[in-house]
Write a structure and sequence with these properties.
2 strands; Growth Hormone, Chain: A; 1% strand; single chain; globular; mainly alpha; 15 helices
């Protein structure tokens, strides 16, 4: 096993987490831009794509997470998964209006066919990505960390989404995203990078020692985390997962439309230069907050992060000036990533030993499935009557507005109320457990 504080462990953590997040950023933030700019996708089509991807991620993580536990292997799933993930990303370079029109000249709407193909291939790509990253990389990270370094490791892991956004923003600056050729080059570059990291993993990652139950039913293990008996044994874990789901819903209300809000509503052609400093500062804050978590733990660490998130929403809701948008984005990103780090760390703490693979599916239900279905649907409903703009080809496209931040704020405030109630329940459960131990 990689030593929990070794350079090799942290190198593997950084490389695989960052590469995976770059691929997810392209999917979660730029696929929306891709089908919006190339094929005039509507808010409902974007919401559908995000929702189906969330379902694919959840089902995949349940199946592959349980399988990796059954076999006691993580490395092969991670490495081969990243390689296949990269190949699937390469395939998007072929989804172009000119190619589709040449292959299907009788198609009534090339754009509709293209959007359908993107949604289908997004689910295929999600299968490979979730197998490698959501199911097995996250299970591996749970296996090789403990109370002494879990917050530090999770702080690094949680800051990677914004580091990935920074890398993608910077990398995309040289491309005209209104041209199909630019997207083809982007998909080729990212696909090759993910494949290369998968190959590198054979040299960086070692399988941890996992106690496997050879006689356990694989199909029962898939749904292990949903058993009533397991819920009764780990009530605090399930309460935390509910909170995590509400947190994710708040994020997913605005996140699929964030870049479109900057570019289409605010006309921020230089949004990369505004966002880059915010991303860097938020990433540094998250890394520091991960270390703070190791000292003060969940109860004291979660409320400041939600407060920052709410402050960020409020500023983005009320102001459109570039300087204030920067401040709002910074506060929102600090709260978002630090919150991810805090929830990620406490859920790993509460995950039963040698069951991390089985519980990754449950984590994805809370982190991806529920937020990925409810959040974008709320965002699409809010934007149903949004202003539209007519493109050069005569088609209409919606313009995201600030209402997405209002509803994200409403859900975040509801989360604070839930947190207060859950904290009281957790306190009673912990007191009960302490009394039972004292009796024993």
């Amino acid at each position: 096993m990689n030593g929990k504080n070794s350079k090799k462990f942290y190198l593997a953590l950084i490389i695989f987490s960052l590469t995976g997040q770059i691929a997810w950023v392209v999917e979660n933030m730029y696929f929306n831009v891709f089908i919006y700019k190339m094929f005039n996708a509507s808010a409902s089509e974007i919401s559908l794509m995000v929702s189906l991807s969330a379902v694919s991620a959840t089902v995949t993580t349940l199946i592959i997470g349980a399988l990796s536990d059954k076999l006691g292997k993580r490395k092969a799933f991670i490495c081969f998964g990243y390689i296949l993930w990269g190949i699937s990303i390469l395939s998007f370079a072929l989804i172009r209006s000119d190619l589709i029109g040449a292959i299907l000249p009788a198609a009534a709407s090339v754009s509709a066919v293209a959007v359908t193909l993107v949604i289908i291939m997004d689910c295929v790509m999600t299968f490979f990505g979730s197998s490698a990253n959501d199911a097995c990389f996250n299970a591996w990270l749970t296996d090789v960390t403990d109370d002494s370094n879990r917050g530090k490791a999770e702080g690094i892991n949680a800051m990677m989404p914004l580091v990935a956004i920074l890398a993608v923003f910077g990398g995309f600056m040289g491309f005209d995203l209104n041209k199909a050729s630019s997207w083809s080059v982007i998909f080729v570059i990212i696909g090759i990078a993910v494949i290369a990291i998968g190959v590198l993993g054979f040299f960086l990652i070692n399988d941890p020692k996992i106690k496997t139950e050879q006689n356990a039913s694989y199909f029962k293990n898939i749904f292990y985390g949903f058993r009533i008996s397991v819920i009764k044994e780990n009530p605090i874990l399930y309460l935390l997962l509910i909170l995590f789901a509400v947190f994710g819903i708040s994020i997913q209300i605005f996140m699929p439309y964030l870049i479109l809000y900057y570019t289409e509503a605010l006309k921020m052609e230089n949004y990369v230069f505004v966002m880059a400093p915010a991303i860097v500062l938020a990433s540094v804050f998250t890394a520091i907050w991960g270390r703070v978590y190791d000292k003060i733990h969940f109860k004291s660490a979660i409320f400041p992060t939600i407060t920052l998130l709410c402050l960020g929403y409020t500023v983005l809701l009320l102001f459109k000036a570039t300087a204030l948008v920067f401040i709002g984005s910074l506060l929102m990103m600090c709260g978002y990533l630090a919150g991810m780090a805090v929830f990620g760390a406490v859920i790993r703490e509460r995950t039963p030993e040698n069951r991390s693979g089985m519980f990754q599916g449950l984590r994805i239900v809370a982190q991806v499935l529920i937020p990925g279905i409810i959040g974008p649907a709320i965002g699409a409903a809010v934007l149903r009557n949004a202003d539209t703009v007519i493109g050069d080809d005569g088609t209409a496209s919606f313009i995201p507005n600030q209402s997405i931040f209002l509803w994200a704020l409403i859900v975040a405030v509801a989360l604070v109320v839930l947190l207060c109630g859950v904290m009281l329940i957790i306190k009673k459960l912990e007191r009960r457990d302490d009394n039972e131990k004292a009796t024993d």
